[in-house]
Amino acid sequence: MSEHWKVIDGSWPEVFHVPGDNGARYPYSNALLVKTSKDNNAALMIDCGVGARIARKIRKEFNVTSIILSHWHEDHTVSSKTIRSARIYCHPADIPPLSDPVAFMRNYGVLGNEIEQQFTAFMESIGVEPLQGVQPLIPGPFQDGDAALQVIHTPGHSAGHCCYYEPGRKIAFLSDIDLSKFGPWYGCLDSSLEDFVQSIRKIQSLNIDIAVPSHEGIKEGKAIKDGLDYFLGKIEERNDKVLTMLRERSPLLARDLYGRNIVYRNYDKFGDYLRHAEAIMVDLHVQYLLDAGKVARIGEAYTLA
Ligand SMILES: [Zn+2]
Q: 0.90 cut: is pTM over it?
């Protein structure tokens, strides 16, 4: 046993929770290690953003044969270069931004714009590198040795975002449906608000006793239900903020809603990036409300419907 990982549940001693470095705060995230054989130290790993220091400890203790990524974001992938033995899997929709720096920048919506340079410098500073040879992970059963999991496609946060579920033990790895107080995040160009809502409902329909989110501690029982309800509520709260700002007559452009704290309380961290990500999220709310018939479009501008 190690200070860096621990068994989640006595009924499933082959599964270890690996908390990410620095409390799993970005650019780190939690991972799971699942032993794939009782006879040796072979294991599969779900996500690999624990940080290089912890990844090196894992490499010493386990023979990680596969890493299954929940999605393409760097805080879930950046430590996989430390565990070189593994074959890497991800949902096909998320393979282009993992392997192609241009697709990565395009998905973040920064390609060719004024924050591209600071964004690139930041990603280099945390060691992001393209991953080659990523295998497509198809939703449904996934088996590696003795380890078997259900891959559940839960798009919204990213197009290929997946959760992992073991129905026998009622354990789910929820990744960035992370049950945080901040709420759901959908600030990339492959994000979808509608899909995110559907994905939360899909997770609500599963029988889960233990949930492992990427940036929060393990949740059990009612905290899981409450966390998922809170996530849906947070989307509604942001919708309401947009509706409060729009008028029945004088139409507003989407950009009139930017920088008005619909998502973030302040924009202090990460240079200009949070304003940029919030603008993408605000656009998704406007589109969502248009589709719901609560907002009307007049040329390029919007009013209440
Ligand atoms: Zn993410």
A: yes
